[in-house]
Amino acid sequence: MPAITFIHPDGKSERVETSGEESAMQAATRHGLDGILAECGGNAMCATCHVYVDESWLARLPDMADDEDALLDGTASERRPNSRLSCQIRITPERDGLIVKLPERQV
Amino acid sequence: MTASGTPASTGPASVPHLDVDPFDMRFFADPYPAHQRLREAGPVVYLDKWNVYGVARYAEVHAVLNDPATFCSSRGVGLSDFKKETPWRPPSLILEADPPAHTRTRAVLSKVLSPTAMKQVRDRFAAAAEERVDALLDKRSFDAIADLAEAYPLSIFPDALGLKPEGREHLIPYASVVFNAFGPPNELRQQAIARSAPHQAYVAEQCQRDNLAPGGFGACIHARVDDGEITATEAPLLVRSLLSAGLDTTVNGIGAAVYCLARFPDQWQRLRDDPTLARNAFEEAVRFESPVQTFFRTTTREVELSGATIGEGEKVLMFLAAANRDPRRWDRPDSYDITRRTSGHVGFGSGIHMCVGQLVARLEGEVMLTALARRVAKIEITGEPKRRFNNTLRGLDSLPVTITPA
């Protein structure tokens, strides 16, 4: 099954196996990963599953919808060009090995 | 007179029929044994009392919430089917609407109540929470519902909306009518609607553009008319949604959190030790108590759900509170645990209709619990809590407490 690597703010990295159908956020919460809150449960309403996507992966991500774009303006840690909401990134086989960095804060 | 629906005798034999009335006073007094019965009877049940289908397990509640094309909202999210009965008030443009109409109105409220908008009110909301706790520390003994759970949101939310000072006493009674009206035609609903005229008149008036202060959430909604996103006749109805669902819900959410923390001193101590847990302590209270207990959907076609066949035009009652304590989904579901991973609970719903004001609720809950945790050493319940009865909302009418300063 495709896997994804989360890099914590302290540099520690954590590899998480996904079910092949879930989002990066769902995989993270299912594994109890610290640093992804996902208060709204994946409905693109809260901006608490913010991640910084490794630059080399940006082109392979789904397009950003307007609601995600607007939510990213309100993230607790600064928005950067590689900011995304992990609930909007489905981990398909093409995204096996995706690397994302976690922000300092989610709220 | 009962609601429309397929007679129980024609329902599929595979669906268990239950005699539970989830809108009965005895049910409200202690819903938990009935919730368990509903969950254990099967993934889909039929409630003969009101001729509706019911789902009480997490998986089915989540599935119904996330299939709005099959389980629609435009025929009402209460028992009344708007296709067969005239609604008691003009339907909500967001709650009681389906895509594509819902998509447009929802986008407007999402923007007005966005994380960015919350950043702008955060300091004000936090300062008001500190002030409220100061006042309560002077009193020491008080009613945690009237003096805290109601007083705090009333001190910030109407101002944030931009409401006039006059007439605010109608807000909580109006919301109480709205949430009672989702229920069946029982005494709670009939009496609420019978007494609703003055509250409705206040709300209709207050939703007009001229009556909303510049810079507030209400004025922000009306400003979208100028951008062409909504029409001038839609704007007051969208303001009405905030008046209906923005106050009583947070009153019950904050009330639930204080009631939990007062009942479970070990959790209160954990919060005292680490006040950054405040936001999750509030979220867990929303899961544990589920201030909004139920909502209905109506099927737009025949559908199979977990082996049960439900015909077109059937009402399906979702037991959000039962889903939030389904042992199939939650470890130790009946424990209030402020460090629990609460993500995925359905206390705010799920899917396209998930509470559009959830960020306001969380902000209010977080700053209030933070203020309490920093300044209060102990919360003791000093009298019998009294329950407030409503067809949809679960909460207390009074909670006598005494607090000790830190």
From TrEMBL, chain A:
InterPro entries: 2Fe-2S_ferredoxin-like_sf (IPR036010), 2Fe-2S_ferredoxin-type (IPR001041), Adrenodoxin-like (IPR001055), Beta-grasp_dom_sf (IPR012675)
Gene Ontology BP term (one): P450-containing electron transport chain
Pfam families: Fer2
Taxonomic superkingdom: Bacteria
Single GO term (MF): electron transfer activity
Basic and acidic residues bias locations: 9-18
Disordered: annotated segments: 1-27
Keywords: 2Fe-2S, Iron, Iron-sulfur, Metal-binding
One Gene Ontology CC term in the entry: cytosol
Coiled coil: none
Cofactors named for this entry: [2Fe-2S] cluster
Signal sequence interval, chain numbering: none
Record domain 2Fe-2S ferredoxin-type: where: 2-106
Similarity comment: family membership: Belongs to the adrenodoxin/putidaredoxin family.
PANTHER family, per database record: FERREDOXIN-2, MITOCHONDRIAL, FERREDOXIN/ADRENODOXIN
Protein name: (2Fe-2S)-binding protein
From TrEMBL, chain B:
Superkingdom of source: Bacteria
A Pfam family hit: p450
UniProtKB keywords: Heme, Iron, Metal-binding, Monooxygenase, Oxidoreductase
Gene3D superfamilies: Cytochrome P450 (1.10.630.10)
MF (Gene Ontology): heme binding; iron ion binding; monooxygenase activity; oxidoreductase activity, acting on paired donors, with incorporation or reduction of molecular oxygen
Family matches, as InterPro entries: Cyt_P450, Cyt_P450_B, Cyt_P450_CS, Cyt_P450_sf
Listed cofactors: heme
Homology family: Belongs to the cytochrome P450 family.
UniProt-recorded name of the protein: Cytochrome P450
